[in-house]
Structure formats: structure tokens, C-alpha cells
Design goal:
This protein is of the alpha+beta class. It has two domains: 108 residues, no CATH class; 236 residues, Immunoglobulin-like (Sandwich), CATH 2.60.40. The chain has five helices and 21 strands. Strands 1, 2, 3, 4, 5, 6, 7, 8, 9, 10, 11, 16 and 17 form a 13-stranded mixed beta sheet that branches. It has a four-stranded antiparallel beta sheet with strand order 18-19-20-21, sandwiched between helices. It has a two-stranded antiparallel sheet with strand order 12-13. The chain is globular and about 70 Å long. The two termini are 15 Å apart. 34% of the residues are buried.
């Protein structure tokens, strides 16, 4: 919270302080049934090496989309491509070898996504749904409708149009679980190959994917979109180094290690590390009620995104602190030593027996933002 606190914020602090006193007193005065503060064991996590500046895209209304991979409808023609994909680590690594870009539309029933992946040698092997598709070259979609970094969706597909769809309860760094049996029921997918699949004797141009994600599934963990509402989304392309042997594509072996070369990871909004499961770094998808080709909308950034990022740096700092000290702290000065970035905002931190909660009120939106030790950031209107 800022140094000059509004009246509502002072009330929040008073209430939180009362809760803390009652909670602590309860534990100190109770018998064997009271849970004492326990030792926290946290493993090390990597911190994104980038400034907070995710990509943004305005998603216009669609009409008459047929999922066939051709992108020949007027709505697609009147829709801009995203910026070209970059390496997952951003400027830390060279630009991708091949161009990748995407575009998006929506209507009352579906979120439509199309992507163009240039590739001189198009290949695929996996044909069984819900196998690990990124063992092939693939295209991936990650969607977090409510932007709290929990309960988000991952989708992968290869040039055979084989798909893998799954739900993650939270990121792996926070011991998230994978609902692999979860399916995006009603999804529509198509692939158009400009060249020949699995034929090393020629050079190919590209493959194009076209997807329709049903909103009745996407909104299981978020609200249905409306004009100017924003979701978090990102795309990834996995590409492997290959050579041709006996008329077939095989992954290239690094002679120094005797193992397959690591895959390339090319993304729309850079992550700052080789890990897609940092939803706080994904791009923003802003919905517009304007029909594609009939006007343009302006990006309307959320007033609180920078504040949420400040809380995210506090989360990173708490993880580092707990890794070294086996506990969390409510001392902002200590957290600054571990990477908390802001001097103007002084959140209220409540230490609990098995974790913590952090509260910060926005003087722009009036919302109270809450961060807990699981890494989730969510809001409550005051």
C-alpha cells in the first residue's frame, strides 16, 4: 500500500492486524491441538530474466468461420497477425530460425486461433491423442481466463493434427497437478500442409493450424469475455534439429554429449527462462465487440497489472527467503534483499503456520489484491 493510506486501506490494516493477533493468541494459549509455526521447505526456482512487458492483442468478432486450415474467410483476412514469435528467453537468445505468427477471433461460442509455422521440412510421428506431443515439432496454446496463474489450460498439436489437452491446477513450481484426463470437449482443429508431410526429398513451405476453443469449457475457471475484458494467453512452438537418414527424419545427436540436441522453444510473449509454466509472463488477449474489418479498438491496460507484478516479485522473494531460512517473513526490508522490487507499496503480510497471505489495496481500482504462498494472485472488491 502507498505511504499515504486512504481510509479504507487503514480499515483493512486494522482488520488484518486483529486477525493476526487473534490467530497468534489462539495458538499461544491452546493445548496440544494448536498447530505451531512449522518449518518451511522450499526448493529453488528460477526467476524470469526480463522486464515485465507482456505482448498484447485485440481479438475482434468473427463471422462464418469454418475450421479447415485455409483461413480464407473475410474475418481472418481482416484480422492482423501477432508479432513474430521470439525465443522463449527473449533477447537472451538469437531470433528463431523459422517464422511463426498467430491471429485470434471470437464469437458467442468459440475463441478462434490460427497460426502459421514456416518450415522447410515438415514431419510428425505421434498419432495418439494425449501423448506428449512436444516430442514432435508442435504448436502449443496456454490460456488462463481469470489471470490468477492457477487452473489454466494447455493445448498441443502436431502436423498430423494429433492433440493433447490438459488442465493444470497451478504451475509445477507450486506443486501443481495435471488433469490429463480432462478434455476440451467440442474443440475443432485443422491443419493445412503447404508441402508434403514426412517427405525429406523436397522442401516444404509451412503448415497452418486453425482452432476453435468452445467457451463453455474455457470459462470453467473464468468469466465469459465481454468488450474490453482481458485474458492471459501465450503460444509456444517446439522445433527439433533433424537430419535425414535412410529417407527419414531423425532428431540430430550432439556429438559432444551423445544425446539429442535440445529443442528450440519459440513463443509469442517471451518468458525470460525456458519454462512456459510462468503464467504471469504470458501475453494479454483483449476482447472487442467490434466485428473484424469494421473498425478498430484501443488497448486498455488494466490499472492493476503493475501492482500485481509487484506482488509477484514479493512471491519470488518469499520463495528465496524460505529456501534459505526455512520460514516466510513479514519484514519488507528482508524481502527487498531477496528481490522485492518496490519501495512505494508496503503490503500487509500475514504469516500463518504453513504459509502466508499478503494484502495490497489498489488506489486506482479500489480492489484488494491477495497473494498466498501457493503463488495465486486474485482480487476482492471493497
Amino acid at each position: 500500500m502507498k505511504k499515504n493510506m486512504p481510509f479504507q486501506l487503514k480499515n483493512i490494516l486494522v482488520i488484518t492486524s486483529i486477525i493476526t493477533i487473534l490467530f497468534t493468541s489462539s495458538c499461544n494459549n491452546s493445548g496440544p491441538g494448536c498447530l505451531e509455526y512449522s518449518e518451511i521447505r522450499q526448493e529453488s526456482i528460477k526467476i524470469p530474466a526480463l522486464e515485465f512487458n507482456p505482448e498484447s492483442y485485440i481479438c475482434y468478432r468473427a463471422e462464418g468461420i469454418n475450421i479447415d486450415g485455409l483461413l480464407d474467410e473475410d474475418s481472418w483476412k481482416d484480422t492482423d497477425w501477432t508479432n513474430d514469435f521470439v525465443d522463449i528467453e527473449g533477447d537472451l537468445k538469437p531470433a528463431p530460425l523459422h517464422r511463426t505468427r498467430a491471429k485470434m477471433l471470437w464469437d458467442e461460442d468459440y475463441l478462434y486461433i490460427a497460426a502459421e509455422l514456416t518450415e522447410p521440412h515438415i514431419w510428425a510421428k505421434l498419432r495418439q491423442r494425449d501423448t506428449v506431443i512436444f516430442y514432435d515439432n508442435d504448436f502449443e496454446v496456454f490460456i488462463d481466463p481469470d489471470g490468477d496463474t492457477h487452473e489454466y489450460m494447455e493445448f498441443e498439436m502436431n502436423a498430423f493434427n494429433t492433440i493433447w489437452d490438459l488442465l493444470l491446477t497451478k504451475p509445477y513450481r507450486d506443486h501443481g497437478r495435471v488433469a490429463d484426463a480432462w478434455n476440451i470437449n467440442g474443440i475443432k482443429t485443422a491443419v493445412k500442409i503447404y508441402g508434403t508431410l514426412n517427405d525429406p526429398s523436397d522442401r516444404d513451405e509451412k503448415w497452418v493450424v486453425e482452432l476453435a476453443f468452445p467457451f463453455d469449457v474455457l470459462t470453467e475457471f473464468g468469466d465469459f469475455p465481454k468488450d474490453k475484458s482481458r485474458w492471459r494467453i501465450n503460444f509456444s512452438r517446439v522445433n527439433w534439429r533433424t537430419v535425414i537418414e535412410n529417407g527419414k527424419y531423425i532428431k540430430e545427436i550432439n556429438p559432444e554429449t551423445g544425446r539429442v540436441f535440445p529443442e528450440y522453444n519459440w513463443v509469442w510473449s517471451p518468458q525470460g527462462l525456458i519454462n512456459m509454466h510462468y503464467p504471469e509472463t504470458w501475453g494479454y488477449l483483449q476482447f472487442s465487440d467490434i466485428k473484424a474489418g469494421e473498425g478498430s479498438a484501443e488497448l486498455v491496460p488494466s490499472a492493476d497489472e503493475q501492482l500485481k507484478w509487484i506482488l509477484r516479485t514479493l512471491y519470488y522473494a518469499q520463495r528465496k527467503f524460505a529456501e534459505e531460512n526455512s520460514k516466510y517473513t513479514d519484514d519488507i526490508n528482508e524481502l527487498k534483499k531477496y528481490g522485492y522490487l518496490n519501495n512505494d507499496y508496503k503490503p500487509c503480510i500475514l504469516i500463518k503456520p504453513l504459509g502466508y497471505e499478503c494484502y495490497l489495496m489498489s488506489d486506482k481500482s479500489g480492489k484488494t489484491w491477495i497473494l498466498d504462498d501457493s503463488g495465486r494472485i486474485y482480487s476482492r472488491n471493497n
